[in-house]
Amino acid sequence: MGESEWEGGFDLPDDTWVLLNVRDDGAPARAALEVAERDGENATLYAEALLPELESLHAAGRRQGAAPFALWVPETPRQADPLIPLVAYVVRQESPDLGRTVEAVAAVCREPHPTRLGEIDIREVELPLGPACRVREMTLAAETDDDRYTVAEHVTFYVLAEPWPEGILQFSVTWTIPGLGDAFAEEADAMAHTLWMARRDSDAVVR
Hints:
The protein is 26% helix and 34% strand. It is of the alpha+beta class. The strands form two sheets. A seven-stranded antiparallel beta sheet has the order 2-3-4-8-7-6-5, with helices on both faces. The chain has a three-stranded antiparallel beta sheet with strand order 1-9-10, with no helix packed on it.
């Protein structure tokens, strides 16, 4: 059973979220059009302002092999960059060298990282899809090409999905709005409980 036979996903909280197909070059433009069709007299201007971020995030998602890749586009445009402050995505990972266990994943996550800020919170959780290592951390991340940086916070679940024993399903939610970490972490937890996997050549979904 090859890895390519499987795909994973999650439920979106509401219709302010936009999906990007990282394999489709036209996805950013279609996502912008979706925003332009929202109610409001400034929706078209909002969509035009979003397009550079949509293209940048699309490229980043493609590099990671993320599928699906979802972006939260607030109803009201933010007054500061980035305009898209919250993303969620799934990536399939190989199992750690120490084995396919939550403890082995946690050991890898505890290793020092040069961009990490402060303490890292690691805990074992049970999801409908299987046991998982939940990691919450803050990192310093480059935002643009002109050496500006921003602080990003992440909640990542490394799931030992029971229907897919070949590797680890990574589900990550990342945001750049300070002060709303606990609210976004709760949303990440709720989304993680909707994770699913299915064979690409089958209509059967394992939840």
